[in-house]
Amino acid sequence: MVDVAIVGTGHSKFGNRTDVNLQELAWEAVKQALEESNLDQKDIDMFVVGNAGGWSSEPLSAIVIGEYCNLAPKGTMRVEAACATGSAALRIAYQAIKAGDAKIAMVIGVEQMHQSPNPVAIEMMGRAGNYFWEFENFGLTFPGYYALYATRRMAKFGMKEEDLGQIAIKNHYYGSFNPYAMFQKQIKMDEYMKSRVVAYPLKVYDACPITDGAAAVILASEEVAKKITDSPVWIVSQGFKSGTANLSKRDDFISIDAARLAAEEAYKKARIDFENSWRYFDVAEVHDCFTIAEIMAYEDLGFAKRGEGHLLAREGQTYIGGRIPVNVDGGLKAKGHPIGATGVSMAVSITRQLLYRAHKGTQVDVKNGMGIAHNVGGTGHYAYVTIFSLKKPSA
Amino acid sequence: MGVTEIRERQFNEIDKKALEQIDLLIKNSGMPIMRDLKTNNLLWIDVRELTQRFMIPIGRIYKFFDQLSKGKIIGTKCPKCGSIYFPPQDDCTKCKVSGLDVIELSGEGELLTYTIITVKPVSFMHYQDYIVGIARLKEGINILAWVNEKPEDVKVGMKVKVNVVKREPEGYFTYELRKIQ
After folding, report:
1. What is the tens place of the pLDDT at every residue in A208-264?
2. Residue A120 touches chain B, beta carbons under 8 Å
3. Do residues B96 and B111 share a domain?
4. Which of B14, B120, B142 is the closest to A139 by Cβ?
5. In a domain, B51, yes or no
6. Could you say which of A83, A287, A289, A359 is catalytic?
7. Domain total in chain B
């Protein structure tokens, strides 16, 4: 099978982007990716649009974006996997190239959540569990779903609210160096502790913001990649799994099972030992839609033992220089979480880290030449784990 | 109060103000365009509203609602493999058998976890802050529902019972979790 590399990346400023519409926002990332790879739209064989949709006005977002970005009549589709939409879009392009159906494919992740008023966005996200059995009568919100995990962990493992606060503080710290981040302000523990409760025990500072943003990557087959760049970043493997729609059907509320299974799948293909996984990577992007999600990600990826994820945070082991730097671009917490763009944004961040092109104050030491992205959709409804490397996987 | 009155009250609070604003914009400038308060960016305010109310088929699990209205909580059980389903379903998708047996659930179990929703979705704004919990019942299945207790009385691991109640102010049957004293 063909090896697949990232040969171009693009990233818009994340935030409250009322200055542009959906397609203009997508173009910011598309243009940057085309320029970076020195390619033209005519070189792209297909494009995939990751857009969870529902909050912005155009229902056929892939088509509106294709028209605006001059990508029509190339083949396309809109891909949805909730908050893992971007990684799902990446998967389609990756597999098309692997299968020999395309040589160059573009992945565009974009979301403009602010087209809907905040109360409507909160309503829509709450409905994204199992609508009939768990929303219609019981009105869970998205922070509410993750709060159920946090409460359980506090009771079972003695996790403290301050441990969650450590995640928020770290991600805001790195977000302050990222010009693309929605929040560029550092926070302190007392501000965290004082912030308003949204779904006990989670507070405003435990939650990622409602965000507008776009990211794009251009993928190419080995044959083409070698012609157009001397610094390809290869996709080594991707694991993807799903969980139950009903949250009540989950087992113990201390782990996102789908994410752990996706990690195991990706590690198996990449020949990575789960227990020592952190030794293989220079940097990780994990799905910190809420601080508790990042804690669980540490364990689901094998960076910490079960029940010890919050200790990794407490010890500051996920800062640059620690066991493994995590979300040093600010993560979803500070960079923002434009649903469909997030997975693609993670791929952009890891690629730029491996190529020593990260923003000042966020660059990690690249020793192993490998990075990992962990992208969860819903509250463990979908999970995608993708491994990136400077070294060709089949080499 | 009923669904109609609740809808009307919410409509008056939220939608009416927005519509009046659109009318004012059109009257003043001939177009539904306004400036974003924070950024001063220009925004077109959609004049076509979309409201959705879904029609969800429940015929195959109607027995659940029938029993609920009589104060009972049921699950379904596969006569072949013995799997118990809650929420109830009429197909055992493991052994591909349909028309499952009905079993009355004990309703007794232990609270696995909970949260208190303080920032509510629009369609839940007419309720006080509510506690959502997940309990594991004796039968080995989990149930998610509101925990009708004071927040300070709710603890992970406490014994709970499922209760059939009327959801007010709408007045329809649903279920909740209560602490077993």
Report:
1. 999 999 999 999 999 999 999 999 999 999 999 999 999 999 989 999 999 999 999
2. yes
3. no
4. B120
5. no
6. A83
7. 3
Q: Give A249's Cβ-side CA count (13 Å radius).
A: 17
Model confidence at A395: pLDDT above 80: no
Is-catalytic flag, A83?
A: yes
Residue with tokens 């155009």: A58
Contact B146 A57 (CB under 8 A): no
Same domain, B91 and B114: no
Q: Which domains does chain A have, with CATH numbers?
A: 4-117+210-228 (3.40.47.10)
Q: Which two tokens stand for residue A11?
A: 């990233």
Judged against a pLDDT cut of 80, whether residue B11 lies above it is answered with: no
d(CA B122, CA B10): 9
**Nearest CA-CA distance, residue A267 and chain B, Å:** 29
Q: Are residues B91 and B112 in the same domain?
A: no
Residue A72: predicted pLDDT: 98
Amino acid letter for position B28 = N
- Domain for residue B36, yes or no? yes
Beta bridge pairs of residue A240: A384
- Please indicate whether, in this complex, the C-beta atoms of A141 and B56 are within 8 angstroms of each other: no
Contacts of A148 in chain B (CB under 8 A): 113-115, 132, 134
- The verdict on B86 and B123 lying in the same domain is no
Residue type, B82: G
In chain A, whose CA is at the least distance from the CA of B47? A57
**Are A90 and A386 in contact, with CB atoms under 8 Å apart?**
yes
Q: Residues of B near A (CB-CB distance < 8 A)?
A: 14, 36, 38-39, 41, 43, 46, 56, 87, 112-125, 127, 130, 132, 134, 142-146, 151, 155-157, 167, 174
State residue A272's pLDDT score.
Answer: 98
Q: Give tens-digit pLDDT for A166-205.
A: 999 999 999 999 999 999 999 999 999 999 999 999 999 9
Chain B residues touching A120 at Cβ < 8 A: 122
A157 touches chain B (CB under 8 A): no
List CB contacts of B8: < 8 A, sequence separation 6 or more.
Answer: none
The domain in which residue B114 lies consists of 107-181
User: Residue A204 carries which DSSP code?
Assistant: G
A337 is known as an active-site residue? yes
Question: What is the domain-level CATH number for residue B134?
Answer: 2.40.50
Residue A277 · residue A303 · CB < 8 Å: yes
Q: Answer whether residue B9 is part of any domain.
A: yes
DSSP state of B43: E
Find chain A residues with C-beta within 8 A of B121's C-beta: 119, 122-123, 126-127, 139, 141
* B147 occurs within a structural domain: yes
| Same domain as B99, residue B68 | yes
C-alpha A156 chain-centroid distance: 28
Q: Are residues B148 and B119 in the same domain?
A: yes
Measure A35 CA to nearest chain B CA, in Å.
Answer: 28
The answer to whether residues B142 and B174 belong to one domain is yes
- The CA distance from A392 to A55, in Å, is 39
**Same domain assignment for residues B120 and B95:** no
Question: B50: which residues sit within 8 A by CB, 6+ positions away?
Answer: none
Q: Which position among A114, A337, A359, A381 bears the catalytic label?
A: A337
pLDDT at A49: 98
DSSP string covering A110-141: EEEGGGS-HHHHHHHHHTSS-IIIIITTT---
